[in-house]
Design brief:
This protein is an alpha/beta fold. It has 16 helices and 13 strands. Helix 10 links the parallel strand 4 and strand 5.
């Protein structure tokens, strides 16, 4: 078999066999397929797609590129949650300790930034000492000891996804339903959880820009789960604008901690409640979603969820004082305000997360090349969201930058992310659909 033939076949839209998909993933793993051939194949998939069975075979091969964890000795129900990626999406940092506190142990494999979206692993690295490279044994031991762990791909768990993911990030090959489905599901199958909630983002800040496309991605992932014997629940949620107010690594960790303290933004808090109540009902820990929401709220109000976050940080070698002292994380040199034009009263109609993300990237918060270091300190805190009333000259955002020049580079992008209406703009619902 030759990789060039697979590229040509996929370019023509021909379906691969299971053997061909296995050949491809073993070539990725043993290094016999160079990045330029893999990139060409990924681009062909973006254009031609994969059939349902090709997607399932690819997922299975990626999952088995490393070890598949058996967590049955840890607990009967082990939870996991995965987002398909958005801007300002720090949900995992809240969700994992919150669910662990609610009695659902969480075993979570996460990724780094991808395309215009941020990654949980990069965000956690803003916490001094936090180790996201856990071996299989460390991962299992930690879930047993503190009921939760968050780790990045290693050579042990879904390593093929790690390699392909890093390449997709810098070759414009992220926005593909089968590639996203295989990437997400291979990690979920390898990490060994049996209660999996997928947060499929829909809107201009997501890889799927419409609810219909997001639903389609949700259906593909649910179908792959069924084919490979792991049922999953997918919730399609809004990404028409960034989630919460903070975009940027340190800033998002701060917002997640504030959410665990009960001071989170409304949309992020609501998303954690919506996904969390779905998980608790599926786990059978509560009789219905109302009871689940009350329980989750209580855990935040009593400070128990925050204590679990501290346990997580401590178990992974991080500095727990971060909870009270945000200045121990990488911090930008200065802050600058971006203000609205001095027009009359208007309402924010759209807020384009991709532009906010592009502004952060201009300041060094994203990668252009595989494995590049990124600036964890810079970012944007939004002062207005869709529906906010803006009087002329009011602040729209605060930019955390390392220099005035860096701020100037980002400012126009941030301003261009906002569009306004002369009349009031209603809020849009956060949860768009559920697929299981
Ligand atoms: N999250 C993943 O893990 N993979 C993707 O391809 C997109 C989002």
């Amino acid at each position: 078999m030759r990789m060039v033939d697979l590229i040509i076949a996929k370019r023509a839209g021909t379906e691969h066999s299971k053997e061909e998909i296995d050949f491809l993933i073993s070539g990725v793993m043993n290094g016999s397929i160079p990045d330029y051939q893999l990139s060409a194949w990924l681009m062909s998939v973006c254009w031609r797609g994969l059939s349902d069975r090709e997607t399932a075979w690819l997922t299975d091969a990626m999952c088995h590129s490393g070890e598949v964890l058996d967590l049955s000795s840890v607990a009967d129900v082990i939870g996991d949650k995965h987002s398909t990626g958005g801007v300002g999406d720090k949900t995992t940092l809240v969700f994992v300790p919150l669910l662990a506190a609610a009695g659902v142990p969480m075993a979570k494999l996460s990724g780094r930034g991808l395309g215009h979206t941020g990654g949980t692993i990069d965000k956690l690295e803003a916490i001094p000492g936090f180790n996201t490279s856990l071996s299989k044994e460390e991962f299992i031991k930690q879930v047993k000891q503190v009921s939760m762990a968050i780790a990045g791909q290693t050579q042990e768990l879904a390593p093929a996804d790690g390699k392909i993911y890093a390449l997709r990030d810098v070759t414009g090959t992220v926005e593909s339903i089968p590639l996203i489905a295989a990437s997400v599901m291979s990690k979920k199958l390898a990490a060994g959880a049996n209660l999996i909630i997928l947060d499929v983002k829909a809107g201009r800040g997501a890889f799927m820009d419409t609810v219909d496309k997001a639903k389609n991605l949700a259906e593909v992932m649910v179908a792959v789960g069924k084919t490979l014997g792991k049922p999953v629940t997918a919730v399609v949620t809004d990404m028409e604008q960034p989630l919460g107010s903070a975009v940027g690594h340190t800033l998002e960790v701060i917002e997640a901690i504030e959410t665990l303290k009960g001071n989170g933004p409304k949309d992020l808090t609501e998303l954690c409640m919506a996904l969390g109540s779905t998980a608790l009902v599926t786990a059978g820990n509560v009789k219905d979603k109302d009871e689940a929401r009350r329980k989750l709220q209580q855990l935040i109000d009593d400070g128990v969820a925050l204590q679990y976050f501290e346990k997580l940080v401590k178990a992974q070698g991080g500095d727990v004082s971060v909870v009270d002292d945000y200045s121990i994380m990488p911090t930008a040199a200065a802050t600058f305000e971006v203000k609205a034009e001095p027009n009359g009263k208007r309402w924010v109609k759209h807020l384009d997360g991709r532009k906010i993300s592009a502004a952060c990237k201009l300041m060094g918060a994203g990668r252009d090349k595989k494995g590049e270091p990124i600036n964890l300190a810079v970012g944007v805190v939004l002062k207005a969201k869709v529906g906010s009333a803006i009087e002329g000259g009011a602040p729209l955002a605060v930019v955390h930058a390392d220099s005035k020049a860096q701020f100037e580079a980002a400012k126009d992008k941030i301003l261009s992310a906002f569009t306004f209406s002369e009349t009031e703009v209603p809020e849009t619902p956060l949860v768009k659909a559920s697929v299981s």
